[in-house]
Write a structure and sequence with these properties.
Layout: H1 2-16, E1 25-27, E2 33-35, H2 36-52, E3 57-60, E4 64-66, E5 72-80, H3 82-86, E6 93-100, E7 103-111, E8 116-121, E9 127-128, E10 131-132, E11 145-148, H4 156-168, E12 171-174, H5 179-185, E13 191-194, H6 199-211, E14 215-218, E15 232-235, H7 238-252
Parallel strand pairs: 3-5, 11-12, 11-13
Antiparallel strand pairs: 1-2, 3-4, 5-6, 6-7, 7-8, 8-9, 9-10, 13-15, 14-15
């Protein structure tokens, strides 16, 4: 965890140094945007990992995968929320996870533009800037504060379940990317449902949500791993998680 914190410390000045500055934005094959800040930051983090733990594997959004069959694998997203980053919105973050035998061992969400960092490791409570934090414990969808990054990311066959959840929830908001999961871990959001995520988008979130007392899984209730399909649901309680899963499953039928 100390090394994961050092990675986040190293990423912060690299990303903040480019934030709200002029730079070129490229479009990747999947039509998502990427900047020099994404690429430079990931390159630096990978170099740090290689120097400290040369036998560890690495999976990153911008520079691919190395030794994913290793016992320990680092999973990094230098800027989760690049669309927010390029538009000057401060709710983006650097994601860092460490897996052991494919299971999340620790995670970090660092949101340097707002000075907040969530971190957690298996068996320990989630911390926000060093202080323990906790989910709200909300158990009822009709009382839940619901977030998703964007409803436009959902395919037509996925949208029906999303719409039903949004109709039932007490409050619905969009945006946030990884920042929303930090807010969930701190008790401000109760439910998040997303689709189309990659391992570097969600693996750092697992220990953070669970360490704060929440539940996170795919849409079928299965644990998240390197091979998950990218459909993610996180909730502030087991009961709320169950209700949302049931609604999604019923809509799919």
């Amino acid at each position: 965890m100390r090394f994961a914190q050092a990675l986040a410390d190293a990423a912060s000045p690299l990303t903040l140094g480019r934030f709200r500055q002029s730079f070129e934005v490229d479009t990747k094959r999947d039509e998502s945007p990427v900047t020099i800040a994404d690429r430079e930051t990931e390159a630096e983090l990978r170099a740090m990992i290689a120097r400290r733990y040369p036998d560890h594997g690495i999976l990153g959004e911008e520079h691919g995968r190395e030794r994913l069959d290793a016992e320990y694998v680092w999973v990094i997203d230098p800027i989760d929320g690049t669309r927010s980053f390029i538009s000057g919105w401060p709710l983006w973050g650097t994601l860092i996870a460490l897996l052991r035998d494919g299971r999340p061992l620790l995670g970090v969400i660092d949101a340097p533009a707002v000075g907040e960092r969530w971190s957690a490791q298996v068996g320990e409570p989630t911390r926000l800037n060093g202080e323990p934090c906790r989910v709200s414990g909300c158990e009822t969808l009709t009382e839940a504060r619901f977030y998703t990054t964007s409803p436009f990311y959902f395919a037509a066959d996925e949208r029906k379940g999303l719409d039903q959840v949004m109709e039932q929830a007490a409050l619905v908001r969009f945006g946030g990317d990884c920042y929303g999961y930090g807010l969930l871990a701190s008790g401000h959001i109760d439910l998040i449902i997303e689709t189309g995520l990659e391992p570097y988008d969600y693996l750092a979130l697992v220990t953070i949500v669970e360490g704060a007392g929440g539940v996170i899984s795919d849409w079928r209730g299965r644990p998240l791993g390197l091979d998950s399909c990218g459909q993610v649901i996180a909730a502030a309680s087991t009961e709320l998680h169950r209700q949302a899963l049931a609604m999604i499953a019923a809509a799919a039928r």
